[in-house]
Amino acid sequence: MATATSTVLYQVREFAERFGVTIRTLHHYDHLGLLKPTVYSESGYRLYSDADVPRLQQIVTLKFLGFSLKQIGELLDGEVLELPAMLRMQREIMEEKRRQLDRAMQAIDSAERIILSKSEPDRDVFIRIIEVITMEQNFQDKEWLKKYYTEEQLADFEARARENPGEAARGTMDWTTLIGDVERAIADGVDPASQEGQGLAARWSGLIASFTRGNAGVATSLDALHADSRNWPATFKKPYSDEVEEFIRKAGFGRASDGAAA
């Protein structure tokens, strides 16, 4: 451990071990400009101090909440907030996340009670769970989706969800069923050019059409979202494999735009 005047400085390994991160993570944060060392030694080694800890805490917390590193950088380098204000913001985000989880848990508890009182599972019970989780996720994702969709498009999505709250749930179930059918077709060696393959592609196209509703602007935004998948936050995953996408492409759809993730 080195010292400079009265400031205690830590070499990168010491800092990583002391505050529960990896050396590779600190190197990556430095490379991205998220967390620069306090100083570099004459030999070029990174040296951190206790003054770097609040910034590290902010990064770790925001990453836990699902923000991408790019979003974290924009947030931390934007409006300068005092530490109490930053902690208050983090608490508010966590409280909202807890409310979302509470609503999802309530839907699951309700579903469990209904299932226990019946001999056969009710499809609508599962739709309700998907509906709650999908709605919460859609609102949570709104900010980063502004990179791809216009304010008008996002407002229209919200209006549609409020007018017909079961639509998103049914759409999610339809996508899940279709993706499973495509995976089974791949496992069975079905030719994408066959009648079965063409039928799967037609269903894929139909589900995307039901989302875009013939709006060319929404279709363009959807394609932009799909093309930028490497920058999606950790909470937003492509729901199908590259093999499924390739099968649909070969079946004649052209490009498997990410309707399932919309």
Describe the 3D structure.
The protein folds into two domains: 79 residues, Multidrug-efflux Transporter Regulator, Chain: A, Domain 2; 128 residues, no CATH class. A hairpin with a 5-residue loop joins strand 3 and strand 4. The protein is mostly helical. The protein is built from twelve helices and four strands, in the order E-E-H-H-E-E-H-H-H-H-H-H-H-H-H-H. It has a four-stranded antiparallel sheet with strand order 1-2-4-3. Helix 5 runs antiparallel to helix 6. The radius of gyration is 24 Å and the shape is extended. The N and C termini lie far apart (50 Å).
Which percent bin holds the helix content? Answer: 55-70%
Order of helices and strands: EEHHEEHHHHHHHHHH
Shape: extended
Radius of gyration: 24 Å
Q: Which structural class best describes the helix and strand composition?
A: mainly alpha
The whole-number mean of residue pLDDT values reads 77
Number of discrete domains: 2
Sequence of strands across the biggest β-sheet: 1-2-4-3
Number of helices: 12
C-alpha termini separation: 50 Å
Major sheet:
4 strands, antiparallel
Low-pLDDT residue spans: 1-5, 255-262
Secondary structure: number of strands: 4
Amount of beta strand: 5-15%
